[in-house]
Specification:
The protein is of the alpha/beta class. Helix content is about 25%, strand content about 25%.
Length: about 400
């Protein structure tokens, strides 16, 4: 196994268990590692300190363990078993007998959340009997079959299909020629359940793993604010917020997304839960254009856009985008309205997002109160040694 040696004094963050090693911290290697290769990391004093996946780029090593141990199927079994125990402890993953732990009729959750579960570069979402696995590093791609075998064993029959969906998440310069495919099974049953509501999961062609399970608790909160309101769900994707609003008793719900494919899936999900319900209408249109020409007096608006900043170089433009978007919503929402507004950009921190929203409110001349400050749910944990993992930020606002 190749060894990587750090520059003197560059091991401090690793002693605090931070899971990333940047290229500037590396002094030399014993040989040139292949991208995705498992490497051992040593201090300048030749002391072992970590093992991880090597990758070309700014983050050169993603740490898998700080113990001197092999990275094999048994390693992944232990990590996945720990992740499963966490989800059982918070009432999401089924018990060994297959019964939900809390009776909430939910079979969709995140089993592995990268650094938050000490498996940087790996995401696994569970939709009923199907696991969708996504690699964000070449190392996790290289180990995908080991991980799939470990997952199958740890889930003990609860997972019958494993779909590998990493075509768009791996570094294109690695030239892996990756295609999305089943590693186990091949089910066409794409319906999952969340808090008793059903939805189609487009794990073949959809964004992320097919559904945004990170908004589960925020959708549930929205349901309690929806009764009697006229709801606008911007960037609706597959309509999650929309059908929660309908169950909450909304007077009408309009769903907007620039993608016709997303609108088709939204309509299918609404039909699945509320067949032939006249309260819902969907529009395939640009968000800013739609907000410019609003005629319906909406009194509940959801803004859940895709990441405006995928890296720090885009931060300035992202903040301008959040100000512009939220200002339009503040200008259009009815007095006494409720605004749910989000950022999923990891490069934008909570304070920056909040400042952008406040700037928008002031520019629109509206008086605004914070009712809730929102974040990612417990099945998307943040490693206390890796605060960068806190990516989802949201505010629920009352607008006079």
């Amino acid at each position: 196994m190749n060894k990587i040696f750090l520059k003197r004094g560059k091991d401090d963050s690793l002693r605090r268990f931070h899971p990333w090693i940047f290229s500037g911290a590396i002094h030399h290697t014993s040989a040139q590692p292949e991208e995705g290769e498992t490497v051992e990391v040593y201090t300048a004093e030749n002391e072992y300190i970590a093992t991880g996946h090597y990758q070309i780029g700014s983050i050169m090593v993603r740490v898998l363990t700080f113990d001197h141990e092999p990275i094999d199927q048994q390693f992944y079994e232990r990590k996945l078993a720990t992740a499963l125990d966490v989800r059982r402890s918070i009432g999401l993953a089924p018990r060994p007998n297959g019964q939900p732990t809390d009776g909430r009729m939910t079979n969709a959750f995140r089993l592995v959340h990268g650094e938050g579960d000490n498996l940087p570069g790996l995401v696994i979402d569970i939709y009923g009997k199907t696991a969708v696995m996504q690699a964000h590093s070449v190392g996790m791609h290289t180990d995908r079959h080991l991980i799939a075998a470990a997952l199958q064993k740890v889930m003990d029959g609860a997972v019958e299909n494993i779909f590998y969906k990493s075509e768009t998440t791996l570094p294109y310069k690695a030239e892996l020629g990756q295609e999305n495919a089943f590693l186990l099974g091949g089910s066409t049953d794409d319906i999952a359940m969340e808090n008793g509501l059903r939805f189609h999961v487009d794990w073949l062609r959809g964004q992320k793993t097919g559904f945004f399970v990170d908004q589960r608790e925020n959708r549930s909160l929205l349901e309690h604010y929806s009764k009697g309101r006229k709801v606008l769900n911007m960037f609706c994707y597959t309509g999650g917020f929309s059908f929660y609003a309908m169950r909450g008793g909304a007077q009408l719900v309009h769903s907007v997304d620039s993608s016709q494919k997303a609108i088709d899936l939204t309509n299918a999900n609404v039909q699945l839960n509320f067949p032939a319900d006249p309260r819902h209408e969907a529009f395939a249109e640009d968000a800013f254009r739609f907000l410019d020409h609003i005629e319906t007096p909406y009194d509940l608006i959801i803004l859940d856009p895709p990441a405006f900043a995928k890296h720090k170089d885009a931060l300035h433009n992202a903040l301008k985008g959040y100000i512009r978007l939220n200002r339009k919503a503040f200008e259009k929402i009815q007095p006494g309205g409720i605004l749910f507004t989000f950022s999923c950009s990891q490069a934008v921190n909570k304070d920056q997002f909040r400042t952008a929203v406040f700037t928008a409110a002031a520019a629109a001349g509206r008086k605004v109160r914070i009712l809730h400050q929102l974040h990612q749910p417990a099945d998307h944990p943040v490693n206390i040694y890796h605060p960068e993992g806190e990516y989802l930020k949201g505010l629920v606002l009352y607008v006079e």
